[in-house]
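Sequence in, structure out. Go.
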Amino acid sequence: MNLAELYQQFLSDLHNTSGLEYIAVFAGILSVWFSRAENIWVYPTGLVNTIIYVYLSFHYSLLGEASVNFYYTVVSIYGWILWARKDKQDKPLLKITSSSGREWAQQIGFFSFFYIVVFSALTWLKKGFAPQAIPWADAFASATAYTGMWLMAKKKVESWHWWIATNFASIPLYFVKHLVFTSVYYLILLIMAISGLIEWNRKSKQCQEPLKAVRQQDR
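Output:
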């Protein structure tokens, strides 16, 4: 397929974009914007996005992505509870922090487990139930998203690394499924994820400065 054909496919698929997909995309962009700003509205807007995408993913045989969005829905409720907890000064108890080496190892293990599970399941389902599935790509996008969402609930800086990987994988994945508006959406999310990584790195360093000062005084 040459560039002209790709462009024509893009225009045709964009014309056929459903109202539900538009709502899901705009809710998702809002959710990422709120997460970058460490605003709890990341979760209610995110739930609108994920519930719609559970339906769309099933409809277009993106079963791995359907499982991801169902997982997002569940973990969003969990993250909402964690982010809502406050201390006596009405400040969030959960702070943005970076992962230790041990936590990185746990993340790699978490990703690997879900990649193997989703890839194996989709390979089996592709034989009859979902012939249009793309197991390796869908499994990668799904497993990185599982990991990113888990870390987002814990306010870990590294969640953005996994979101960046998810967005890279999802751009072509949704394009070949003719969900081009969603493909553009993931391109926007990729840019926002890079911005979110920079912002959370800055906030993480600010949170560490008071601790360093206390340690120096103790010495």
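Check: Residues 17-85+101-218 form one domain. The two ends are 66 Å apart (CA to CA).
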